Records
---
Amino acid sequence: MLAKLKEIEQNALTALDAVTEPAALEAWRVKHLGRSSALMQVFSSLGSLSKEERPAIGQAANRVKMTLEAALTRQTEAIKAALLAKSLQEEKLDVTLPGRRIRVGRLHPSTQQLRRVLNILAEMGFQVYTSREVETDEMNFQALNFPPHHPAREMQDSLFVEAGERGDNPILLRTHTSPGQIRAMREACAKNPDNPPPIRIALPGMCFRNEQITARSEVQFNQVEGLAVGKHITFADLKGTLSDFARRMFGQAARTRFRASYFPFTEPSAEMDIECFVCGGKGCSVCKNSGWLEILGCGMVHPIVLQNGGYDPKRYTGYAFGMGPERQLMLRNKINDIRYFWGNDVRFLEQF
Amino acid sequence: MKLPLSWLQDFVNTDGLSVEDIARKLTLAGLEVDEIRYVGLPMPEGAARHEFKTSGIAWQRHKLVVAEIREVMPHPNADRLVLCDLFDGESQHTVLTGAPNLFDYKGLGKLPKPIKAAYAREGATLYDGHAEGLTLTTLKRTKIRGVESYSMVCSEKELGISEEHEGIIILDEDAPTGMPLVDYMGDAVLDISILPNMGRCASVLGVARELAALTHRPLKKPEIRYPAEGSPIEGLVSIEISDPSLNPRFVLGLIRNVQSKPSPYKIQRRLRLAGMRPINALVDATNYAMLELGEPLHAFDYDVLVERARGKPVVISTRAAREGEKLTTLDGVERNLSPLNVLVCDAAGPLSIAGVMGGQESEITEKTRNVLLEGAAWNFINIRRTAAQHNLPSEASFRFSRGVHPALADQGVRLGLQYMAAWTGGVIAPGLVDEYPLPPHDPLVEVTPQNVERLLGIRLSAREIADLLERVEFECQVEGEKVIAKTPPHRMDIGEGVVGLADILEEIARLYGYENIPETRMADGLPPQIGNPLHEWEETLRDKLVALGFQEIVSYRLTSAENEARLGVSGQAVKIANPIAPEKSILRRSLLASALDSLERNARLREGLALFEIGPVFEPVPGDLPLEPRKLAVVMNGLRDETAWDEKTSRTWDFYDLKGRLELLLSGLRLTDIVYIPTDSVKYLHPGKAAEIQAGGQTIGVFGELHPLVKGKYEFGEPPVLVAEFDLSALRAAASTDYELASVPDVPPVLEDIALIVDESISAAKVEALIRQTGGKVLTGVKLFDVYRGEQVGAGKKSLAYSLTYQAEKTLTDKEAADIRNKIVRRLERELGAQLRG
């Protein structure tokens, strides 16, 4: 009997090894573990065995049953795993094929750069002040200490508007955002003429020059100016503020240099250079081998300008600075043609 | 301004300073060095950093030396070549050259006075004289027409001094034979930008004064001392000035018996390095004195003036030109003059345009023997306008238009006369004729340590302030805590009162060194932080548009009427009086026109485009500044989705794609009560695919499909062009800043679909409005999910299918839901004649 059980076990396991389909598994179960299987017949015949034989045979039959059941479970899992592996294999993709894109929107690079600049300035307490793009000569030049025919006007060739005879006060497209300085000071001063409040503003906006459009020069460009007016503002504060700004804008290691310059509306005036961030000051094509990049013009607000804004230069001092977001982007991203900015070619815009 | 270093060294000792040290000091003090051109001096090599744009050539000390040519001999096989017997301080060489300026000496035997030349030994590296541009070459041993050659005598081009390659350099006689050329005349040229307020530095002396002050070194001023002989100028010539405000000073000097000859080589070389062409010793003397001192000079042929005076004394007068007056200037151009121009005249008429350019008739020539030399002061604004009017930028007008102090006039004349005498053998007549009706007032400015600390944030004593200012020749008196500084008589940039104080404080900062001023943070209080809500709102608008997939563009404000006419924009525009180009002749009136231009240019580059721009348009106001209302323009065209390798096409964008985005935008901006009203009055829009958007009864924008006829004026493909335009102030006025959040319900909603058959003429908006109104608060969602027309609903009818969402605070029973629905259906039946579709 024990030999028979051994044979039943052997036959069943051999048959199970050959099973590869889920349907065949059920057939195997019916044949080898079902009611009419050889093993079950052994169980049925236990009653006819002698008392002595019965426990040993019963135990052996049980062991065979458990062995076969365990084998069935194993084989079922194995077949499932094989099927899954097969289907995973079949579902394999070429992951190198391109993904499907959706169309996304972007801000114009100038907007992005304006935001970077204005965000830093906002943290330093400079709030945005915007003003008109078409101005009078008086606001754009005279109030800013450019008298008519002053040589400094050569630095800012203007586009004039046809507006009839207006003598020395023609209408023009603003050449810088500085007329906003006068407007902001006069507004603040109107609130309290005897003791006008301090001012700390950032003036962003489009400016215009009478220049041919080439890779290096444009008829319009953005500018951001800063203006601080108060009772205790010094040139040392100007240096400190702008060096702080440069570190925020160009990285913590940014080194600055201030050199004397000239603007009619500031005195003393300075240009702030930063050490070239491309070559670290060793000299490269971006800095034209000078090691420095000209980033902004600045200076202490000229007494005439303070006066024109309603602030007594004997009681108040202030500083102003101005920079070009497009120029900053050109340096930073090695853009070799300023015309890209207003050309609106999506092949340029999509890179930002 | 191009400044040769060797010339600068005539006035300030630069021992211990490298070329770059000098350039750096000048740059930081406002004399920005744009470029350093090395002409012989060693160039910085392998330095850790370059501070300046550099160019040029360094002369090898042992390869390039001063040599003497002792004899010039014919070449045995070539007429156009000569052989030089040359001694270079060490040995004798036979050197072959084709220089035409040696041919005169050919075959004369041993020369009584050897010719000094710049000699390049075998292996020397210099520029190839025959090549275009600047190409370096190294001298190698070779045979030319049978004669061995290994070295050469150099032209200016070969040494990098100028483009000149007509002949070899003939050095001055005192050049020491055998001396390395770099020691004899090695140089570097600083190209300096002169700021408008630093006209005083537009001269060698002016820069030297700054460098001396910046490096605490003494300034050696030029010595003007010469013997004078013959009858004095006084009595021969007189001056009449009609308007001293235009001509504050006029000085004349006279030199007799000058000879026409070239100036010394050293002078010619310096003029070339400074960017001027040597002509002859007379002309060179006026230019050299101008570059050195900063006072432009003008030389007249005295004999021509005497002849024009017809026996009377020469009277030189200055006056404004008369309308229609003409003068032929020395460039041969006849100039039409206007009263803006000031003329220097004699009894016979105009001689020159003051301060800008001389006239042809009285100019000095090879034949000139007696010279009247003019040094004058002019009104800088007048000179600037005159030079611009005649398009005559010159070295003289460059200086005069920045302001030349009248005190320099006599110094300039005397320096010029001295050089003329030295270089032409002429004899200077005693005295000058000097008419000085309007001497300038050189301001006295008071400055205190408190002034300095208040503006610059540094503490200096009165004595320290005076020391700084005295370095640039202010005469200072220290009275206790006060410095009274008198402006030196060579600068015009110091004002009076608060302006003068600012001018002086700038000088103090510059001389103290910007780099020495500390960096501090503002102690001054912050003004109230009120932000800029308009600006912030516009930035939010940009963000929302970007989130909806739109690319921002920024266009030129300048456009042309023709370009805007494509969109049908007409009417008055803000016109530019001096446009850079016809296509940039007006300020834009339509932002949509700008945006469509960009859409058109990009249409073929991408399958689908969605662009927006935010910015001003310009509306003229007669006699005043234009209005600058701000607008938003949105344009779309092409495929709705990006195609891919397995999704080969997509629908094209249409009206409802744009409308959906605008709905999202407006709801994002918290606009409520939006009404879309069909319109056929917007000329550039398709009359059946256009809507006006109203909020609270106000029109805030229009949108729709571009009219086919308008579209035809652009280069677009088949797909429709969708456009929208908003007025930002109207849009912002309609947007609410505060809104309440609807709570998220705890109980599930009841969803139900209904389909209604209505007349074609009834708008979907009307049906939806009635449904919402009737459903009340419980009806939280109404979504149109189908529009059907066909046999089943009958002609002239349409079926609108809505999915309705009922949401109450508790779960609705079936009966409650049915009641709401019946109420809605009954109302639609009653008011719109709608029929529930089974």
Note: The mean pLDDT of chain A is 92.
---
Amino acid sequence: MNRSFRVPRIRALAGIAGLTAVAVIAAGCSSGGGSGSSPSSSGSKKLTASAPGITASTITIGSHQPLTGVAAPGYDEISPASNAYFQYVNAHGGVYGRKIVYKVLNDQYDPTITSTDVHQLVLQDNVFAIFDGLGTPTHLAVVKYLNASKIPDLFVASGCECWNETSTEPETTGWQIDYVREGKILGKYLEQKFKGKKIGYFYQDDEFGQDGVKGLDDEIPKSQVVARQSYNPSVTNVAPQVTALKAAGAQVVVSFSVPAFTALLKLGMLKLNFNPQLAVSDVGSDPITLSGLLESFAKQGGAKVSGNALTQGIITDGYLPSLGSTSNSWIQLFTKIHSTYLKKLPLDGNVAFGIAVAYTFVQAMLKAGRNPTRQDLVNAINSGLPQGPSVAPYAYSASNHDGITGAYIAVIKNGALSQVGPVQVTDTSASGAVTTDSTSPQAAPASGIPSP
Amino acid sequence: MTLARHLGAAIVVAAIVVLLSIQLSAYRDYQLAEVAAYLVAVAGLTVLIGLSGQISIGHGAFMAIGGYTSALLLTHLGWPLALILLASVVVSAAGGALFGVAAARLRGPYLAGATLMLAVALPTVADQYQHFFGGDQGLSVAITTPASLGATFPPTRWQAWVTCASALIALILLANLARSRVGRSWRAVRDDEVAAALSGLNVARLQVLAFVVSAACAGLGGALLAVVTGIVAPGAYTLTLSIALLTAAVLGGLGTLPGALWGSLVLVLVPTYLTNVGTSHGLSSGASSSVPIAAYGVILIVVMLVFPAGIQGGLRRLFGSAVDTPPALSRWRVPFTRSAGTSPPPPLRPPAQGRENQEEGPS
Amino acid sequence: MQEFLEFTLGGIATGMIYAAIALSLVLIWRGTRILNYSQGGMAMFTTYIAWLVIRDTGSYWAGFAVALAAGLVLGSVLEVAVVRPTENKPPLNAVIVTIGLLILLEGAAGIIYGGQYRSFPAAFSIKGLKAGSIGLGISPNDVFTAAAVLAAALILALVFRYTSVGLRLRAAAFAPAVARLLGIRIGRVLTLGWALAGLFGALAGVLVTSSTFLYPNSMDSIFVLGFTAAVIGGLDSPLGAVIGGIVLGVVLSYAGGYLGSNLVLVYGLAALVLVLMIRPTGLFSSATVRRV
């Protein structure tokens, strides 16, 4: 007996009922992010819900970060550090009395998940702005969407030049020094200090590494570069690249790599008995992260050697004060925040980064006014921001959304950056010179909170 | 008459979807579009595994082919969307044919191994030819809502319409195919390859055809997903995606099209839900972001142990014939071991015993 | 010439790791006809346990021994608790269950230990060896790795061939109904098979993690390549697993070194498809192809 005449209609109806039920449940479950604005307290100045994500008492911002997966190590400390600074600000009066609510979603460094996360933050959680989105390929997935929806996309955590497109993407700004500038500053130092020596490049095979190499090539004569080896972050075997660098006779190796691959480079060099001078860009040279990664190898054979032994002498650059300068007012602020809110994490470059960029956000929010709209926030940045913890000035203007414009050269000594020479600033063009910064760094405000 | 019935059901569902997309918030529309995109890929995979008895843990690779095809066509040639989707289907079908021919003699775990390697190796091509494929950064995919709908029409609703329409068309075609002679031939090959060959079926050609069809569906799903998320990059097509498709197909109910729907819903909604539960309990980032991952693993294990026939099978047990699928589709058996071509005899208990317990379900 | 030597020796060293994973997959396949997708996850988890022991006691060998023991325990526990219930069910269910196990293990490791990359010590020095003035591209630790895997494989082969336990394992895999009739407790034998597989996985994990980092996903790519090695060698054949591992390691080393590292996995795919087109069930399997 053929049941099939009855079945499809019932099947379809069941399917429809199922779908509807699911949708109703799903719609009901969606609690919606920003709650309705509570009646403003009887303060002297009235705070209003001036924009989506802003209520009389809260400011909600969102971010996508790789909290698990390949890119997580080290970088997963940044958002808790930023959140710690926001909690500090909230505990000391907030931004014009409003508390900052920071919602972070894990995108596992997968651009598809980044897109879903950002859609959730914008459409469901109604964030005021996206802050510190981390990762070049991941953030590129959402830049067009954010600009089309006119959501401020602030201080992207990546040094790609892609965030400085003010004509087509006015909502997006960078913050950290971009990789081309870094390459030029490193390149000029190496060219001066190692005249005539053979130089080899080791770089990540994406915008990060390629921009760095572009900067290096602007300053280092082509004839000095004997090898250019790139790596893919999903392949942890770098033996072929190290073998090639050694075979070319490189006496100096410059690396634009993430910390894990800096460590792998160092290990590979050990295995091949290859010992050139190593120079590593800021992103991959945090001494604490590196010695943690190299720790077990330094303890080889029971010797009482600290992990720092393997990082000693590495040349790098820095754009925040060195964590070794304990008398620096910014380092004192970072230490205070760390000991209050972040005891489980080491006080390393990632934590400093997180606090510093959060400080910059608060600067921008204060400048945007008491009842800001989204456009007010972008305008606040376009009119320039004071230097803050950065060692060099920001480039922010209506036509330039680059962040920090310079850095100092440093050598790693005993697990911390030891500054060598003055802060250098430059631009991203091939011909722009690398010059000494003439501005002086600012001290941290005593309260730890920027003034409006 | 199959076609007429399927079309009728589809029209009703289409009307419901349109109503739903207007009622739902923009974010839910976005999720609806995601579900529809995954649904197409999972449906193709469930047909491949459930009907033709071949396994694939590499269908993410075909989604990548479809996604990149649509991105490249959009960027370089600017074709209309429908044409782009069609082209993605054709190109991934070609990829499926190529792989199907190379893997025609493989069975069971050997086929699984080959598809696994495919899933892992294919996205690396994008890193090699960076200038063309955009490397790790990938290529962006941006479609515009047609002007005829007005300037204030929400883009997420348009995406939901496009993806659901494509999904419905694909499902109709798949359902018809399953009921046709090809579908019956597939099931014959799946159940006993030697007997099928003896009765004159061209086994190799049928196997390749199954791969072509499922790869085409995966390609369409990949193109739709690219449209919804706005980007194609190697990081979007990792092994995790292929495994997710497989788990969705089996979790939902292997070989059944409603099962593909349940699996896709789980795939899109559950991880977000788990993360929200985590953050609302005050779990911040760091170690606690692994909680949703561990929970998803537990769900997979528990559902497979409690509902061995997947969600669709569980629904059948609970609600009886109301959610029944036509007998042909429900009787799925995957002779993972039998057709593997290895000489030692099948596992410990006579397989038939297990299956009898299953068939008892709706009484 | 030196480069060639470095690539060859390095490839063999890496290949032994793939061989260890392949061996554990073959063990489970022969005994239970299940493909254990969580093999890499199990190896990662036991390596974390080793890391804890080493950190607290300072002794590498204590950690090594604990890891192997943990592998035995983990394998048995998983078989009894999670895999046994899938016996009567369609085979794909076991696949999904092992995938669920993999995800669960990775999530659990992330919760317990956190996601950061940790460095894991090596048993011996990692500084490269030299033959006279020619660098060999491998270190004493690499030699230890290869030797350990080979020794373990040899012991396994001896156990299979010359002990009654081994005989029971082989009987249960080859003719389970008859074995049962002869009084062999099939259930216990299955558990033993999984325990041994856990042991091999733990060995692979501890050996390989010293040249990379320990994090929840650290064994993922190694598992994929170990699986490929098992398929190349033939899922039935332990000898095939070892040879498949070495061949794969060397081929990938040459490909990565001479042809560029971007497309290494594509070359691996090509090698796999090539082997399977010639012999669809792997190089050393004992399968007979049915022709009609």
Note: Strands of chain C lie at 118-119, 130-131, 134-135, 213-214.
